[in-house]
Amino acid sequence: MPAPDRTVPDPVLPGSPVPGFLYGTAWKEQETERLTLLALEAGFRGVDTANQRRHYFEAGVGAAVKKAIAGGVVRREDLFLQTKFTHAGGQDHRLPYDPNADPATQVRQSFASSLEHLQVDSVDSYVLHGPSSRRGLAAADLQVWRTMEELQAAGRTRFLGISNVDLDQIEELWSRAVVPPAFVQNRCYASLGWDRAVRAFCRAKGVVYQGFSLLTANGAELRHPAFLDLAARVGKSPAQVVFRFARQVGMLPLTGTTSVEHMREDLESDRFELSGEDVRLIESIATVR
């Protein structure tokens, strides 16, 4: 169905800041609350989670946020909270909605559950946690997006986003959405040019590209002698170099480190610059002999 005239939300509108780094909370289970609180104390002002108990403990994020606000670590208005709706195919038996309900009802139930978990009245970004199939967009995906648009129109979320998408899927969503995504979040492989095609689309459309698994998906490339020589030359850790690279090519990076020392180091990645030659080397590191 064709979309009417639309406007793309600006992720840097006054009063709704989007930080330059997000703390990712996947795969932390009962450590979620402790680690999220440590991240906020270390200086992170953006937190990414999902209402998908299979990989996330969203209520742990909410408990950490509540403690951080109560303790004066951060004000709610200075914190960027992002969560996701996950189709049943990406869930385990702990569903946050009625599996027999229609997609629109599932979104509303999952969103209400997220607000309860996070102990807030609204979120800053609500993300479709991947289309329901690997090819194209199904009718259920479009129903989900329409319902997410309703939540955004009602002021329950500032921005909408989608994750785990191929170029053809984001192009289709862009053409059919009333409110197009402000964010695309993908796992980012150096061997695939750091998701070059999707990043180019995002850059052309003014969409913020969020990159995750920047370290864990690229172990071989980050052990490449040319990359290690670069890190030694600039006097920074490999992780800092990757995150600085991400920022310079227009990504909003995520880190899920469990080390307080690494949390602080990661945040310091915005305190130096890579040369254009360095950026080009990292862009092509998977092809360097």
Alpha plus pi helix count: 11
The SS-based structural class is alpha/beta
Side-by-side strand order of the widest sheet? 1-2-3-4-5-6-7-8
| Biggest beta sheet summary | 8 strands, parallel, barrel
Count of β-strands: 8
- Shape descriptor: globular
Mean pLDDT across the residues is 94
H-E order? EHEHEHEHEHEHEHHHEHH
The span between the termini is: 48 Å
* Uncertain residue segments: 1-10
Q: How large is the share of residues in beta strands?
A: 5-15%
Rg: 19 Å
Summarize the structure.
The protein has 289 residues and is of the alpha/beta class. It has eleven helices and eight strands.
Explain what this protein looks like in three dimensions.
With 289 residues, the protein is of the alpha/beta class. Helices cover 40% and strands 14% of the residues. The protein has eleven helices and eight strands. Strand 3, helix 3 and strand 4 form a beta-alpha-beta unit. The longest helix is centred in the middle third of the chain and has 16 residues, at 103-118. Residues 1-10 have low confidence and may be disordered.
